Amino acid sequence: MNLKQITFLLIGFIIVSSISCEQTKPKDLLNQLEEIPGVSVKKIAGDTIFLEYYELYFTQDLDHLNPKAGTFQQRVLLGHQSFDQPMVVELEGYKIWSDKAGELSKLLNANQLTIEHRYFKNSMPDSLDWQYLNIQQAATDQHVIIQALQKIYPGKWISTGISKGGQTTIFHRYFYPDDVDVSVPYVAPLNLAREDKRIHEHLATVGSKETRGQIYQFQLACFKNKTKLLPLADAYAKEKNYSFSMGLERALDLSILEYPFAHWQWGGIDSIPDNNANSQELSEHLFKVSSIDFFDVSSIKRLLPFYHQALSEIGMYSYEVAPFKQYLNDEKDITFDFTFPNEPIRKFDASSMIKINKWLQTDAEKILFIYGENDTWSATAVDLKGNEKCKKFVNPKGSHKTRINSFPLEMKKEIVSTLEEWLNVQLSVNNEQ
């Protein structure tokens, strides 16, 4: 074989090797995402903790039991670190609030998938047909998305969510227990009635007797000075461009009734004004803790999907009338039916919550629950009873803002140790309090 023949052979080998390497080279993430059926993908700027960030829209069946009912687009965010890292899937109970990495994603140095809940913000069907807004339909949305992405990310999967997102995490795991390896719901209530009375019981016993007395006296002062508070509330509403279909006075009444719930939910803001406070001081504190915008027309409209779910399937609370009856015209506790003023009262079906409650106490596994002791929503926290396959941690005096890093160090270590055992990983504990 002469030199010319050898040269041609070498060139041929190099070309064949190059083609072979190109054929076996893994596709990049964007290509893999674009190959998912019914998905549109766009690379965007997100949290810089991730190497790549994408916005996806999944075409979902409005009714997963009847594809003929139509479809809608569901928004999803994907923060990519590595195909070898775990995936934390943030299940939102409402819209997507942020593109930032969550606590678990940082702890696990994980990829993060954030799924907007159906009927909220960018994941809203063209027609709000409420019959398709229920926990099973939403869980199936999440199942479809998770199944698609698991073909790309083969590692451990952890689902999580906060508040209603925590509820969503529980519900998804109930219907699809094998979709993920571990779940971490934060501050997630499990209401067993349309207006769960355990919330009233919590408000009657939480914290110290002295603080509860201060709260009652503050509410009483607000009602006694309502004629002085109304013009202040009116000016505040005009400044913020709020409007109230129920009327300003009714919105003010509800803000006062909401106050203890909000106080304990968020851990209190500033000191509670005493009996010597003037109307300006009363109104400023009231609107800081229990803002009147909760009852604003646009705020209620944005949350109508939540109120529908609360009043039909996942439960809510009511406002106690008895302590302030002389200042109100109501004979019964006030429910959140006021959010649908022109519609028939929704019929509540507790069967799903009752089944899920039983499942949590018997068959559920590797779900780690995070709660704050004082948080009003902890009144209806999950009760695991004898199920040792799951764990529940309650942060002493913690509020609805409780996270793993909120706990005392020894409790934090126990939480992290549980995640290490369940996920077969080693993690470092942040010693900061």
Task: Explain this structure.
By secondary structure, this protein is α/β, with parallel strands linked by helices. The protein has helices at residues 3-24, 29-34, 103-108, 135-150, 164-175, 198-203, 209-224, 226-240, 248-266, 279-289, 297-302, 304-314, 351-362, 409-423, and strands at residues 39-43, 52-61, 71-80, 87-91, 111-115, 157-162, 182-186, 368-372, 391-395. The chain is built from 14 helices and nine strands. The model is unreliable at 3-25 (pLDDT under 50). The chain is globular and about 70 Å long. It has two domains: 30-190 and 352-423, 3-Layer(aba) Sandwich (Rossmann fold); 198-339, no CATH class. A seven-stranded mixed sheet has the order 1-2-3-5-4-6-7, with helices on both faces. A two-stranded parallel sheet has the order 8-9. The N and C termini lie far apart (76 Å). Helix content is 40%, strand content 13%.
